[in-house]
Amino acid sequence: MPYVYSFDHKHRRPPMEYKDLLGGKGANLAEMTSVLKLPVPGGFTVSTDACRAYMESGWPSELDGEIEKQVAKLEKDMGRTLGDPKDPLLVSVRSGAKFSMPGMMDTVLNLGLNDRSVKGLATSTDNERFAYDSYRRFIAMYARIVMDAEGEPFEELLEAAREKVGGKTDADIPADALKELCDQYKALVKEQTGKPFPQKPMKQLRGAVEAVFSSWNRPRAIAYRNREHIAHTLGTAVNVQAMVFGNRDNDSGTGVGFTRNAATGENKPYGDFLVNAQGEDVVAGIRNTQSLDDMIGVFPEIHDELLEIFERLERHYQDMCDTEFTIEQGKLWMLQTRVGKRTGVAALKMAVEMTKGTGKGKDRWKISRDTALMRVTADNLDSVLHPQFTDKGTVLATGLGASPGAAVGKVYFTADEAADAADRGEEIILVRNETSPEDVHGMMVAEGILTARGGLVSHAAVVARGWGTPAIVGAEAIKISGKQFSVGDVTVAEGDVISIDGTTGEVVLGEMHMASGEPPPEFDTILQWADKVRKNKLAVRANADSGEDAANARELGAEGIGLCRTEHMFLAPDRLPVVRRMILATTDEEEEAALADLRDVQQADFEEVLEAMDGLPVTIRLLDPPLHEFLPPVEELKIKEATSGLSEQEQAELAAAESWAEHNPMIGTRGVRLGVIKPGLYAMQVRALLDAAAALRKRKKNPIVEIMIPLTVTREELALARSWVQEEVDAALKGMRNKPDITIGTMIETPRAAVRADEIAEVSDFFSFGTNDLTQLTFGFSRDDVESRMMPAYLEQGLLKRNPFDTIDQTGVGDLVRLGAERGRATKKKLKLGVCGEHGGDPESIDLFYRVGLDYVSCSPFRVPIARLSAAQAILRNA
Ligand code: PEP
Ligand code: MG
Q: pTM higher than 0.85 for the full model?
């Protein structure tokens, strides 16, 4: 297998299927060249195979020869040679992994320029200024990216050159000054890196390719992969492509275009371009761009050609594409295309609209509903559910709404300071002139991002949109200087709070109130299609403990409650004293009296929950946590004892807290074990529940109750706990006419319970997998401790691919779920199975739960829409 492939290489399958080998960019360049026959400058891709080989054992010995061969072919195709002193070929070098990845080396342009070929470029273009401007850009870029030099001193030299000639912009610097600047730059390279700036084009090329390879393992790139769950072993490809110049003259230009609007989803091409500029000028947002419509006035024919290409691209990819293009002396070149990133609103709108068909006659195309469903992501749904402001503040400045949603936070002006503040637990808004991959670690922790420059396709906009982080770009009224920004006479300093609305682009001083978002109509359409796919295959319930949450969950599409944590009802301020009275009781009578009081308040709570979910199953879990959680902390009482002294009640609380204290409370007296030593507790809860159900029956409602016993380990303990519940049920139902529907089951959240599910199923009507505790107990990872301290190190070093509390550990914990399901059903074929750990709202975990045959997943109310979509996707994926 070769390491290097030219864009027109004849692959066996369509090149876009070779993203593993060629990276996303390389695969698309090959597809554009050899299948779509678009005007693409020639070039070749150094494959990810080469990168992996490099990471394993250094620069592969065959690689130099292969690159030389490809360069020779490229030179022949383009009719120019690298480093030619008369009319040189110049190339760009870009990284291109399988998944687009900010944080890696991006691009080196103008490679091939040296002291000799710059003269050739000057003669062949008859433009000395252009040649030396290209050269100085190349030296600075190469020095910074490939030779690890600092960027700032180059900027300073450039500024000095501009000032010396009294110019306003870089374009005012004449050729002579640029020539001198090139010499200064080369000297600076030597000074900073101890090495001369390389003059041999092949040496420059090898340096750039190697820099791309090693940028794969930059901390920023690793952090990005960790966040996006991209495997560290993939490696990146490198694309080497003949340069065309958008900054040659006023007949040239460069831009980026989307076949539809990536922010709103509107079926209208969208783009930004600049006359007489290079690509980086557009993305960096340093100059203000013009729209595609403006192009009609400047380059009318190219505008038509571009729109025709857009149509061809959409038909080919059957999706919205984004493109980069350059116009060189009146000729259009396509530099890049790929299926484009989009906002959640746009993803929903496009997916639904594309099922209706686009184009005419033989060019008409559409996608199926199933394809549309597969295209919408959990993040897309999340972003349309994002908070919005409820009040109107005084608008300080308005920029472009680049990524929807509202955010409030303290302003920080550098990524490092933002990351530190986030570590301290602050909510932050990152404010920058523009962002670059350098800033990714600060953007990642930001509630919102605000930039003073840049357009809707700038780095800040694209990255924020991909993550669903609210962002405003190009708020030009904002003048940043050091650790503050000002708008008119208002100054906002580091640490001050602002609010930003990424939908309207409004920046507001101070903290605004937020409420959840209003999803577009396509949100319901997609979810209804998802529900059709899921019907009778995988239900979605919610974890909710109050009537209000239950009603909200139902509104969001929950088909019942999979977990009502009754302890949450005990923590209300008016309940806690009663619970404490029960714990502190010294006689049976005192305990019974306290339990009777608790029963009354619990009954009211149960009625609310059952009513909100009328006609749908509601799983009520009997008390689970250790009792000391309801008492004040021992230390707190001890301090008070030593200072102001304790009241009689507090003395009793201290004694109880000390007696209930345990070294490992999460594996101590909790769950069903608590029931065993305080049986009156469960009996009281069941009675309250049955009274609530009976009250609802009287009101002609239809409560469906599932009573769930937590943390079971053996059949015997479940049989015992079940017997108390059954006794209460029998007593309550005796003689009742309209009996409510009641079943009794257990959580499977210990490894033993999963392994011995066959025995446990003998005394259980249903199982609900509690994957939070099951993960804790399977790994032996404290769910309260390891995620902040240990997990980051484990993820960084690849000891774990994913945080198992986030996404189910498929082969360990997931295998226990599979085993529990199989063994449970071996005893009881129709055993109802669900999951109520946090994983119930995680798309990848849902895929596993579907594959192992669970009947439902249960998650927090706001994740219900995501679970509905993910369940449908799991079904389609595994069909
Ligand atoms: C679980 O352990 O997965 C579960 C749902 O119970 P809790 O989180 O309340 O312990
Ligand atoms: Mg649990």
A: no
